[in-house]
Amino acid sequence: MLNLRNLRVTIDDYEIINIDELTLQAGSRLGLVGESGSGKTMTAKAIAGLLPNEAKVSGEVNFDGQNLLTLGDRELAKVRGKRIGFVFQDPARSLNPMMRISKQVSEAIRIHTDLKGKAVTAKVTDLLRQVQLPEPETLLRRYPHQLSGGQQQRVMIAAAIAADPDLLIADEPTTALDVTVQEEILRLLISLSEQRKMSLLFVSHDLGVVRFVCNQVAVIYGGNIVEAGDIDSIINRPQHRYTAALLAANPGMPKDDNFSAFIGRRLQTITGSVPAVGRFPSGCRFRNRCQHASDKCATTPSVTASSPEHRYLCWHPAQGGQS
Amino acid sequence: MTLSSTPLVSVEQMYFHYPRAKISPGGSGWTLHDISLSIDLKSTVGIVGESGSGKSTLIRVMCGLLRHQQGTVRFNGKDISEYQGDGANELRRQNQIVFQNPRRSLDPRMTIRRSLTEPIRALQDRTPDDDELITSIKRVGLGPEVLSRFPHQLSGGQLQRVGIARSLSVNPTILYADEPVSALDVSVQAQVLNLLMDLRDQMGLTLVMVSHDLGVVSRMCEHIIVMRHGRIVEAGRTSDVLSRPSSEYTATLLKAARAASLERS
Amino acid sequence: MPDQSKELTQDTSIATKPSLGKRLRRLPITLYLGGALVTTFVAVAMISFVWTPYPPNKLNLTNRLASPGTAGFFLGTDRAGRDVVTELMLGARNSLYVSVVSTVVAMFLGSIIGLSIAGSRRVLQGPFTRLVDAGLALPGILTALVLAAKLGPGNTTATLAIITWQVPVAARVTIGPARQILALDYVEAAYGYGRTKAYVLRRHVLPNISPLLIVLGSVMFAAAILIEAALAFLSVGVQPPTSSWGRFLNETQSLLEAAPYLMFFPGVAIVLTALGFNLLGDGLRTVLDPQQARTGVA
Predict the structure, then answer these.
(1) Measured between beta carbons, which residues in chain B are less than 8 angstroms from residue C208?
(2) What is the pLDDT of residues A47-97, one digit of tens each?
(3) Any idea where the domains of chain C sit in the sequence?
(4) What is the CATH number of the domain that holds B252?
(5) The domain spanning residue A209 has which CATH number?
(6) Does the distance separating the beta carbons of A205 and B262 come in below 8 Å?
(7) Pairing of the two strands A14-24 and A2-11
(8) ipTM of this predicted structure
(9) Which residues of chain A have a CB within 8 Å of the CB of C7?
(10) Cα nearest neighbour of C10 on chain A
């Protein structure tokens, strides 16, 4: 239902994104995982058509058969909101502090449906209920600052699904939230996705969160998708060295309450840091930081599939396999 | 000199509210309620809680940046309000903080060199020479070329290392770290956490780390304090508290943390 | 202990400083334009002390209101036969003196007041800010007139009037940003190693609001030039025989029929000087910002 092909984004002559292929099936939940500077937010923006003016884009962003990149502003605006919904990271910043909740949620409804007046209010109340906000009728007249962070994020989600989109793009939706609230919001996203058969593109730096929410994952580094496929396969048997390193660096929680063995154990780090835009090496972008790199890595690895649901780009994969 | 039985820091029935807070008879308005705890020399303690739990406020009171209204806070056996004059400087020197967001904790208009020399200039009345600074900066894994740079020219991870170097430059006894890695990427987090562990061992530091991330705390800290709404909910050895939490809140935190974490063996 | 040196050598992705020539070329154009304008006027004012085409106030009653280009008078003469160029040069002296002195004093006093208020105890901040607001509400021209009545017209009066007018502006503008900086982590860190509030205000707050102050200063310079001209125009500032652009402009008012072009000369001089200060301030602000003075690829 969403398919990226040969997507290239350049800003100021630097190639920010270079994705040969990425697919999200209808009803699926795909996590796009990367650190800062990986290009994950830029990819989400490219899909949404919200890239800065200086950006030059080429390739295809196929949404239900239509290449979004070929659409003009007005047609794109119709797609946004109606067929694709967005949830951003910091609800405090994405909600207009001067607008009441009901107005913010109803905007999408007004633009994309023919409902008017009382019908709109009824729909908004229903949406607030669907995102599990207590006493929705009272909330309608409140302002964002009167709500907690978790409640604000639920409002954002309500606004995003208001016009019943087929795809929801969420960019780090729980990063600014407490851990208990995070769990609730993540469960909400999962249930909404299942109930409405709505696909979810979940952009995050946190593999743990992505494992909880998504059934597919794509790891992005230096604007390239280095590994993609089924979430369990990738987390349990990572092939690309960056994915493996990312997993190893994650503090995680000990299995079976075995905390005493956990304490004091150093984390595995990735040497160096993400290079600035334009300073990535040729060939495999990770090779300067990879313990297993060889001369071969100066040429860009081709796609290898260890199974139909698990593709990666690495000459020296972690689990073995062809190189 | 501390006797082995006297904790380095001890807090008894401490209450704190921010200056303009309205205190109601019912007790609301206080940011910290009835805090009692103790920290032993060379131990590593994690303070966990969600937003509004008061954990960041607690460490600021403990190191003397904020003044509590009720109760006692003792450092090295002595009430911190009794550290006056030169003693106040000594208290400051022994208690240092590393802040969460390195871009906000370094003056953007000062070079790294200047920022690094500030604590020594303020507390020891002398200006360290470049050799001393280079030792300091190498200890946190950075090279001497960062000295002439400005904060905006360094990455988040590099800046956080500078922040750590700055606090350690005066050889403190206890280092408070307020969410030291929350603003950093996972791979950089790992580097900085390892660095903190190494430095703690090298310098014999007592480390008190505030974090919302149970995973990080369970890696670094033998002891844990769980806070909620300005009160201590539970405290003890990390392995005990987290494998057999006695409070329902701790259990809820754990469950939520596990849900969104990778299971590691 | 695991080897950290690999992390050491890798962690050097820092920009390098380009050559001096490159940096000069990267300087903002506003700096050059503004600098050029201001330097020109300052130079003109300075030169006027040593040389003017005609002696100050030399009246050429036979050549009154000569049009520009008349022999010996590059821009013509005014109603009393004084050479326009000479008048402009002498006027520059005046305008620059008054605006520089008043702006420097007003900025100095205003920022000290603003910083002190920002650093004072919360309870006191409200009332003090209101006091400053009261100062802002004082009508400037009225103050000038009152001062003129008590002290007589002249440069000193004009300078004092402008200072009284501008100090509350400078103070008011500094309070907000100063308070914001005081709430930042690096200020807290400074307290953490024993710095006093006064030190923090001087060494952390002031440098970090300096871009604001530079812009403020340049705007105030420009405003001062205009106010000085206005006061002279109203005969509150300098009196003849001292030359002033404002006074000159005043005179041209009544000459709209006889010599309508005359008002452009002092007018343009005033506008260009004000513009020059504005541009210079903008350029300085950009240059002094460590983040904007780009030193290579980020």
Answers:
(1) 107-109
(2) 888 888 888 888 888 888 888 888 887 888 778 778 888 888 777 778 888
(3) 45-64+75-288
(4) 3.40.50.300
(5) 3.40.50.300
(6) no
(7) antiparallel
(8) 0.83
(9) 269, 271-272
(10) A272
